[in-house]
Specification:
Elements: H1 3-6, H2 17-31, H3 41-62, H4 64-75, H5 92-111, H6 115-149, H7 155-183
């Protein structure tokens, strides 16, 4: 049973999050282990499994980016985040830019960070953060809407666009984290947002 099926939803990216939350609370009461305490062990185990799956489904579907990542896995027949048939790559232009930033960052760290270098790194981080927001808006806005209305023959092209967008977002998050780490400022964004190096 997919996470969409847990909530009786079609495999679409446009979701009424308020309705999703309402269903989550209703199903949580139904599967909560306390309501099955007097049931036979197999029924208790079944309720526990259903409760765990419900929680995982809600966490994934309420987050629009996590919802896209999950849909990509479903379309590729994968249950986990591993084993993609084709590893998506960010665009060559972005990769070249990221390598240049990483190289400059390594040189700056080797020579120590003076005030000017720190200001430059902060500016780069802000610029990359804005690009990450733009990429997320594209993924969760126009691309998601296109997916929901696309006929089956157009979906492979959209799936490839999702994968490239997710790879781009992951690269941006990685470099933003590296810049934040080098500056010794704030928390690692990976503690808040799941992403992967590709």
């Amino acid at each position: 049973m997919s996470y969409f099926e847990v909530f009786g939803l079609p495999r679409r990216l446009g979701i009424d999050v308020a309705e999703l939350q309402r269903q989550f609370y209703e199903l949580s009461r139904r599967y909560h282990p306390d309501f099955h305490a007097g049931a036979p062990p197999d029924e208790q185990a079944s309720a526990l499994d259903a409760s765990a799956r419900l929680n995982a489904a809600y966490r994934t579907l309420r987050d629009p980016v996590a919802r896209i990542e999950y849909l990509v896995r479903l379309e590729e027949g994968r249950e986990t985040k591993e084993g993609a048939a084709v590893k998506a790559q960010a665009s060559p232009a972005l990769l070249e830019e990221m390598f240049e930033i990483q190289e400059a960052l390594a040189q700056a760290k080797a020579g120590g960070l003076d005030d000017g270098t720190r200001a430059t790194l902060r500016t780069q981080r802000e610029r990359l953060g804005a690009r990450r927001q733009e990429e997320e808006a594209r993924l969760t806005g126009p691309l998601s809407a296109a997916w929901d209305r696309a006929p089956a023959e157009e979906r492979p092209k959209l799936l490839a666009a999702f994968k490239e967008g997710l790879a781009t977002r992951a690269y941006l998050l990685t470099v933003i984290d590296d810049l934040t780490g080098a500056l010794g400022e704030g928390e690692d964004t990976r503690s808040h947002v799941a992403h992967h190096r590709h």
